[in-house]
Amino acid sequence: MDKSQVITRMRGTPGYLAPEWLTSQITEKADVYSFGVVVIEIISGRKNLDTSLSEESIHLVTLLEEKVKSGQLVDLIDKHSSDMQVHKHEVIQMMNLAMWCLQIDSKRRPKMSEVVKVLEGNMDAETNIDHNFVATSQVMFGIPQNIGSSSPPLASDLSGPR
Question: For residues 46 and 43, what is the distance between their CA atoms, to the nearest angstrom?
Fold first, then answer.
C-alpha cells in the first residue's frame, strides 16, 4: 500500500473552519483561525453561530467585521462579565490578536508560536491587518477565478493531484 500521500477530509464545526478548507490547500494556520474564533467567543460571551439572534447577528465573525469597521469593537465585549468590562483595554488587545488570527489569507495569520508570545507579553499583535474576516469569494483566499465562466469548477481543479 502506497503511504506517500495524505488525504485530508474536511472535518470540524461550522463557523470554526478556516476559509482555506474550501480550497484543499490546508496549512497549519487553519487551527490559528479556529483559535481566533474561540477568543472572540470568550470575549463576547456567546457562540460563533447563534441562530436565536437576529439574522444580521447570527454569525459572530461577521458581526466582528461590522463592529471593527464602524469603530464599535467595545459593543462585542460581554456585558455580563465585570472582569471584561473593567479590563476593556486588555480585552481590546486580545481582540486585536483574534483579528490577526482571523485573516482570510492564511499567510497573513500568525504562527501559533507568535500567538503564544503575544499572550506571554513578549510580542505585540500585528496591527496592519485586513478587517475582512469572512470570505465572500474564492479570490479572497487565493483561488483564481475565471470571471468569464459561469460553469462550476471541475473536481480535478479543486482536489489537486491524488
Answer: 8
The two counts, helices (H) then strands (E), for the chain are 6, 0
Cα(94)–Cα(99) distance, integer angstroms: 9
User: What pLDDT, in 10s, does the model give residues 47-88?
Assistant: 988 878 777 778 899 999 999 999 999 999 999 999 999 999
CA gap 38, 98 in Å, rounded = 8
CA 101 to chain centre: 6
pLDDT digits (tens, 9 = 90+) for 93-151: 999 999 999 998 889 999 999 999 999 999 999 989 999 887 765 544 444 444 333 44
Beta carbons within 8 Å of 14's beta carbon, 6+ residues apart: 49
Rounded to an integer, what distance in angstroms lies between the CA atom of residue 78 and that of residue 11? 29
Q: Which residues contact 112 (CB under 8 A, 6 or more apart)?
A: 28, 31, 32, 35
In this structure, what C-alpha cell is assigned to residue 134?
469572512
Length of the chain: 162
